């Protein structure tokens, strides 16, 4: 099970942050979580005197390096950003030309921003008016400015609105599509972007192709399997086009705490590369694990899913090789690919992830279908697939298959041959621009997507119309039709991409409009070979002809500030399901309960109808430590890293602690509205205020005061075990993505 908690990649890249004159960080702590990349932030300060602004409910190590810091109440970033927009529009600091030519729906945003006066913002967010004004002025007047976010914005019931709000702020300032600007989402694991792009998710096919008949048929062709065979893998056709459960709530499919909508309950769990103890609401996860018929964990350590469960049989741990014992590509946070070489052969009896999957496919009788796509090549001239070889070579043929199929985000140029060349020449690229030199001239490091053709440079900065498409320029994608409410969705006449034959905006290209849009005439042979649109064009002619005309195949449209298909057309503030300001929940209520979302009903209003803050008055913030990662098993299995953080703890303000008679180093209980509790050591710090506590989520192996040591197979127990923060994280899920509200809950504390 791969997982993708963040969403959105960097529009620019880490080196480009050095070009920024101002940097605003919402809910990210790169000094701790991206410490190597953080050097670029510090260089921007040193070289450009860039103003570093941090918005975080805790005074973090990143905040310690900042010029300005806003101590925000968790879950109130939307009011904060509307407050910024309020001041921006009032002072005329917005980029009017950019908005006119490249943005749809800003009027609605302006209307909403008017309501968020600084005094109102101060009341909701806890950030004083003067601080909001200082920050806004610094960010709006020192351009270009880059906007950074990570999990502090996403892990909320309004996470998807948060991640729309931030780009709106950048669109208003015209900070998109420029060096030193952009929305730069710092992603998590080294390959979380790759996992997302390959859609290790339940709602889409690889490359974000939707669950539609057209996509399935395209993939059947590209995989070299019969469409009907694929269909036959599902209970019925309906389920083929229906989203599955999310990682966040797979357990509902077993224990059905909320009503589910599926063809059959889940009976077996296969875990490959996820901690499981990193999922919110561990008590429910534990119940589900106990109830399963079968649990298989394929990974390098004794995954603590197998420890958490009380199940005594039907649990298998398959020793899996690490990245150092394997070869292939990964995708970085800025959409660029990296070839990774094997350091040593798989040790002991472990097998690589792909060999485990191959063995699985053999056992279940679909091995031939599973690997067939790697043996095919595109006959571009005829727009057909041909079988090129009897057997495949791993990983080259897998990489080439991805390049051949995934056109939506432009992976066509990511051939194994090119990516290996980048690895060999990684010293031939500029750190700040990632442009190649010497033999790598004309290419950007890792060919950041979209990399439209097998000779394209890659695109280091998305949506830059001042760069030719051949050098990585492009407009916004035309994804949502030509017009809405009578307003054109295409970019305005002044937003012509540099060197393009087509003036201003134009629609995404398909077989039926390409002649008209590009002003060309296709030969009958060209037409016959061409796919229906640029996303399924095996001949790659649409992309190649587009590039010849200096345009990107996906069109040149306006960015949407107003999304007519979402529950909130423009981002709206809604209080977390468990809020310490119940007075505001009435004014800014959450959503209505949502039926059948990723196969499970999700509660919103029915949770918020109770004032939980009476019993649970403290905000619960969870996050990361520099010495540990994710579920923490890897680091807790290291003697040396364990020494730095030997024990699970709770960061607590001394004044709050004293109210409960908790001394520094005492054991304390943290209770949650779920009726669960954890016992952890108190750590005094002023980095959290008296109204909130912080828990790292890197521990497992204890459950509500119970030590689970006995469940570790001999010799596998890590040097440190502890309570999981996720035993007390609250119910609550994002309305679009179902990311858990692990940064927006409440708790109560007590001396243990
Ligand atoms: N409360 C709270 N919970 C959170 C978060 C939070 O901020 N607060 N953050 C969330 C986020 S953003 C994320 S990404 C998740 C992270 O949570 P997880 O993804 O669960 O974290 P990891 O520990 O990185 O888990 C990866 C597992 O993969 C194993 N592994 C490593 N290399 C390989 C390999 O090559 N092959 C295989 N098969 N396995 C391998 C590791 O041993 C480890 O057990 O946690 C989420 N949970
Ligand atoms: N050392 C280390 N590095 C890591 C990881 C790790 O586990 N350890 N994990 C990797 C992964 S998978 C990911 S996704 C990234 C995550 O990287 P980050 O997102 O930086 O990680 P977090 O510490 O979970 O959260 C960041 C900050 O969000 C703040 N925050 C919480 N709620 C809010 C809010 O409502 N508003 C605002 N503005 N801020 C809020 C928290 O106080 C915290 O300081 O890190 C990656 N890097
Ligand atoms: Mo993550």
Tell me what the structure shows.
28% of the residues lie in helices and 15% in strands. Among the domains are: 15-185, Dimethylsulfoxide Reductase, domain 2 (3-Layer(aba) Sandwich), CATH 3.40.228.10; 192-207 and 246-405, Rossmann fold (3-Layer(aba) Sandwich); 612-751, Barwin-like endoglucanases (Beta Barrel). The two termini are 36 Å apart. α3 (77-91) packs across α5 (106-115) and α3 (77-91) runs antiparallel to α6 (118-125). It contains 28 helices and 27 strands. A hairpin with a 2-residue loop joins β14 and β15. By secondary structure, it is α/β, with parallel strands linked by helices. The strands form nine sheets. Strands 20-22-21-27-19-23 form a six-stranded mixed sheet. Strands 3-2-1-5-6 form a five-stranded parallel sheet. One ligand MGD binds next to α1, β2, α8 and β19.
Number of helices: 28
Would you give the CATH topology of the domain at 192-207 and 246-405?
Answer: Rossmann fold
Q: Tell me the span between the first and last alpha carbons.
A: 36 Å
Q: Any idea what the shape is? A: globular
Secondary structure: number of strands: 27
Subunit organisation of the chains: single chain
Structural class, by secondary structure, is alpha/beta
CATH architecture of the domain at 192-207 and 246-405: 3-Layer(aba) Sandwich
Question: What can be said about the biggest beta sheet?
Answer: 6 strands, mixed
Poorly predicted regions: 1-6
What is the average per-residue confidence, as pLDDT, rounded to a whole number? 96
Strand line-up of the largest beta sheet: 20-22-21-27-19-23
| Beta-strand content | 5-15%
Which range best describes the helical content: under 10%, 10-25%, 25-40%, 40-55%, 55-70% or over 70%? 25-40%
- Briefly, what CATH class of the domain at 192-207 and 246-405? Alpha Beta
**Cofactors, ions and other ligands in the entry:** ligand MGD, molybdenum atom
